[in-house]
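Researcher: Sequence recovery benchmark, item below. Answer with residues only.
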């Protein structure tokens, strides 16, 4: 994709009215100092503190700043997905709006994408200004994600990332999957993923919008994205395999019980009835589950073939 702009900066935000003027002035200075052509896409995720009014003021002063407003709070993934759809530059940078990410990192991130040909570069907050109640769970979360995904990143959830525009146009972010964009990108075929140590600044305004529950939800989302990424195009491979194994177990067990019963009758040996054998009921359950799993895979295949999934977030205004 060719573009007249060097950089699109996508910033999802929720109730960040205090930090917006300083952040946008800082970004503008960095872009002008480096002679970048740019656009900044501010996605207001249903703020109720005057953030949208501030965005309109910033956009009126500098038309490189654009705003998108949701009618309600959809979440960070929705905001990023809409921002990605709107981005038109060669390189897309994402950052949070709370001033904890430094715009001074933008030039180096841009060079890593354009000159070193990375598909995606993720920031690493090596020195964090967070309480231990956030840093310890975060380390565990990142360790588990590294092991499952095979991507050697220290900080999957860092908001400061850089992308080749082909990546943001080739993936879809939904639910709470913004934590796993590197994983989604890898499983979408974008495998050159790098990392850069970035400055993490102490929060200057407001309070964090995330609690400890995000780590619990994070692990559930990881399991979900791992499953969906591997099997969304071929659900029969998963359900069909399990169903076949379950059915074969039940079928073989049933055959064994019947053969054993016939043998006892032929030899005049009095044995217990088949229906009195625990293995008969285990085999019966395995047969039923096997058929159900196979049908689930078959239905999943039909849904996959016929569906035309799209995102539809209720955008009420643009400037």
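Model:
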């Amino acid at each position: 994709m060719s573009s007249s702009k060097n950089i699109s900066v996508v910033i999802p935000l929720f109730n960040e009215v205090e930090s917006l003027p300083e952040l946008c002035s800082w970004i503008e200075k960095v872009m002008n100092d480096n002679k970048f052509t740019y656009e900044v896409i501010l996605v207001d995720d249903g703020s109720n503190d005057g953030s949208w009014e501030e965005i309109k003021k910033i956009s009126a002063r500098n038309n490189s700043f654009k705003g998108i407003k949701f009618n309600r709070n959809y979440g960070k993934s929705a905001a990023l997905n809409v921002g990605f759809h709107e981005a038109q530059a060669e390189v897309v940078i994402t950052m949070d709006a709370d001033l904890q990410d430094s715009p001074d990192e933008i030039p180096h991130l841009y060079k890593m994408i354009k000159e070193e040909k990375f598909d995606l570069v993720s920031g690493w907050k090596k020195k964090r200004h967070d309480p231990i109640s956030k840093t310890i769970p975060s380390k565990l979360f990142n360790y588990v994600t590294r092991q499952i995904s095979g991507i050697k990143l220290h900080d999957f959830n860092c908001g400061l990332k850089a992308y080749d525009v082909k990546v943001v146009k080739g993936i879809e972010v939904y639910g709470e999957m913004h934590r796993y964009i590197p994983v989604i990108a890898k499983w979408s075929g974008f495998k050159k993923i790098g990392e850069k140590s970035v400055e993490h600044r102490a929060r200057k305004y407001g309070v964090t919008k995330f609690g400890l529950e995000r780590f619990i939800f994070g692990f559930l989302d990881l399991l979900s994205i791992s499953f969906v990424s591997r099997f969304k195009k071929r659900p029969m491979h998963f359900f069909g395999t399990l169903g076949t194994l379950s059915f074969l177990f039940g079928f073989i067990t049933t055959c064994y019980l019947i053969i054993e019963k016939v043998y006892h009758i032929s030899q005049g040996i009095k044995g217990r009835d088949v229906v009195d054998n625990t293995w008969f009921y285990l085999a019966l359950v395995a047969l039923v589950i096997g058929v159900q799993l196979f049908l689930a895979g078959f239905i999943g295949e039909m849904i996959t073939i016929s569906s035309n999934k799209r995102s539809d977030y209720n955008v009420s205004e643009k400037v």
